[in-house]
Design goal:
Helix content is 32%, strand content 16%. The protein has helices at residues 19-23, 46-55, 90-112, 126-135, 178-189, 208-221, and strands at residues 31-35, 60-62, 68-69, 77-78, 119-124, 143-147, 163-169, 194-199. This is Esterase.
Length: 230
């Protein structure tokens, strides 16, 4: 492999004195991974994907299916079953699904030539649950946008390089908003960079009321030079 000597522009390096070398920051195309809810499919994330694509035209967008077929219906996917779930068994089911979740994210990163520093995980419901759980233990993404998600249990540590944006509807009758409020408080205690956006009329669906603040969170917390559309 050829290494450029000091003062040698080398392939792809602007020469000294080139205005582009001084004025143009390095551009990174972020990998935005969209994670559907339990019983859902990647198609459920299409409206969010379209908004992200419009706002971040240079972003690479992926929406994988969860690892397992949904066991309470004929269609869809899940990371873990919610059949007969309660607070006693939920943490174990999440923990059992983590290896498959992390493997899915890392496979997408390899496929797109991305790493944690240029990855954004945007999850809804169970997708948000898995993203939060995984990033408590792994340097997996620069930013997690958790829409109507939760921890189970609340974390005892956090990977501080990962920024967290929690978006939750106050009228969510499936995943009570208190879960995001508790998550925000715990993450703040752990020194995380966390933001909480509560949506007054938001329910447990990816309606425009939740999509708009989620996309705003991706834009606001991004540190990438990604050619945003203003």
């Amino acid at each position: 492999m050829r290494h450029a000597a000091p003062g040698d522009p080398g392939p792809g390096n602007p020469a000294a004195g080139d205005p582009a070398a001084d004025d143009t920051p390095a551009q990174v195309s972020p990998l935005v991974i969209l994670l559907h809810g339990v019983g859902g499919t990647p198609a459920d994330m299409a409206p969010l994907a379209a908004l992200v694509e419009t706002a971040l035209p240079r972003a690479r967008i992926a929406a994988p299916p969860a690892a397992l077929p949904y066991d309470l219906g004929p269609h869809g996917f899940q990371w873990f079953s919610v059949d007969d779930i309660d607070e006693a068994v939920r943490p174990g089911r999440i923990a059992a699904a983590l290896d498959a979740f992390v493997a899915t994210v890392e496979a997408l990163q390899r496929a797109h030539g991305a790493g944690p520093a240029d990855t954004v995980l945007v999850g809804f419901s169970q997708g948000a649950i898995m993203a939060l759980a995984a990033c408590a233990q792994h340097w997996l993404a620069h930013h997690v946008v958790a829409i109507a998600g939760r921890f189970a249990p609340l974390p005892v540590c956090w990977e501080r390089r990962t920024v967290v944006s929690l978006v939750h509807g106050r009228m969510d009758g499936v995943m009570p908003v208190a879960h995001s409020e508790l998550a925000a408080a715990r993450l703040a205690e752990l020194g995380a960079d966390v933001r909480l956006q509560l949506v007054p009329r938001g329910i447990h669906m990816l309606t425009p009321a939740l999509l708009a603040p989620a996309v705003h969170a991706v834009l606001e917390e991004s540190t990438f030079d990604i050619g945003r559309r203003r």
